[in-house]
Specification:
Layout: H1 8-23, H2 25-33, H3 42-50, H4 55-68
Helix pairs in contact: 1-2
Length: 70
Amino acid sequence: MTTHIHPIAEVTQRGTSALIREMGVVDTIRFLNQFRAGSGDYTQDRHKLFDGLSAKEIINEIKAQRKTSI
């Protein structure tokens, strides 16, 4: 059995077209954005945000923010 390897540009174009056909443009963009590389250093940011806080304190803060955003 012989396998033909298609150029990545073609694979990308065919995949994007299939997604648009099945899900529409907006949901395709939302789907593809999940796989974008992020930026920054999450570990460093996490330490800045949560240093000195216990898990219980973080949870209580989340719950308090949810109440004010309703």
